[in-house]
Design a protein that fits this description.
Distance between the termini: 11 Å
Helix content: 10-25%
Shape: globular
Radius of gyration: 18 Å
Length: 163
């Protein structure tokens, strides 16, 4: 499986870029999965629903299935957060996995950057950031794309991963 990341600080445009990239790349006929890192506690389940009640009762894993989709929830219950490689191993094979976050891991990435964010660029200190997608003009030692030029960014990523 080929892997490419989208990184950046909060409100840099990562999720919007991910969404547009998935749409563009799947439109071209490739299969894509996504993996997103969250820095906070999150819950995909709803209080009062059966699956929530199963987890709340102490189940280690709860698999919820229907004719439309299935979801497997795993409670860490104090165990360490899994590494990216361990999570990737759980995904079905696809042409490309786009990863949002995991900026400290060694896979190739593009940085989403908005000038008004007030955050510094990650790219100058990180060789795994192969390009920057920004809403401001800048000159770097690597490619810089307009944050909204999804086609050019998708072209770059697909070339980088050999698709």
């Amino acid at each position: 499986m080929r892997l490419y990341g989208v990184v950046g600080y909060k409100n840099a445009g990562k999720t919007g870029l991910m969404e547009r990239l998935v749409t563009e790349i799947t439109r071209r006929g490739f299969t894509v999965s996504t993996l997103k890192h969250a820095h906070h506690t999150f819950d995909v389940d709803q209080p009062g629903k059966d699956s929530f009640r199963h987890r709340n009762a102490g189940a280690q894993q709860v698999l919820l299935a229907s004719a439309t989709r299935w979801a497997l929830m795993t409670e860490l219950r104090g165990d360490a957060e899994p590494h990216l490689a361990d999570l990737l191993a759980r995904l079905d094979p696809v042409d490309l996995v786009l990863v949002e976050g995991y900026k400290r891991d060694a896979h190739p990435k593009i940085e989403a950057f908005r000038g008004v964010s007030g955050h510094p660029l990650i790219a100058p200190d990180d060789p795994t950031v192969r390009a920057v997608a920004s809403d401001t003009g800048m000159t770097l030692d690597r490619p810089v794309f307009d944050l909204n030029d999804t086609k050019a960014i998708a072209d770059f990523i697909l070339t980088e991963v050999g698709l």
